[in-house]
Amino acid sequence: WTAFVSSLIEYDELRAYRFRVAVYAGAGYTVFDDKALALRLRAGAGAVRELGSDGLPGRWVPEAIVGKDFRWAWNDRSSFLSV
Fold first, then answer.
1. Are strands 19-33 and 37-51 parallel, antiparallel or unpaired?
2. How far apart are CA 66 and CA 41, in angstroms?
3. Count of C-beta atoms within a 10 Å radius of residue 66
4. What residues of the chain score a pLDDT lower than 50?
């Protein structure tokens, strides 16, 4: 088992907001991890806030986050990685 914390700051002047801020935390589980194959699954929760829309800060909106890390190594020099 592992724990993770993640954050995000996004800037986009073409949207209705200028900044989008997000924070997440959760847990991950390593299903298998050997020399050729590895798989880790992640799940957690967090919140997102949009700043700069109509001159007023937005409110925090709860969100869920899920993810995976997959690695398949063909040999010592080549591998496929999906995050």
1. antiparallel
2. 8
3. 9
4. none
Residue type, 37: L
Q: Are 2 and 41 in contact (CB under 8 A)?
A: no
CA distance 24 to 44: 7
pTM metric for this prediction: 0.72
State the burial class of residue 80 (Cβ atoms within 10 Å of its Cβ: 0-12, 13-18, 19+). exposed
Tokens of 26: 């959760």
Longest dimension (CA), the chain: 55
**Euclidean distance between CA atoms 4 and 65, whole angstroms:** 11
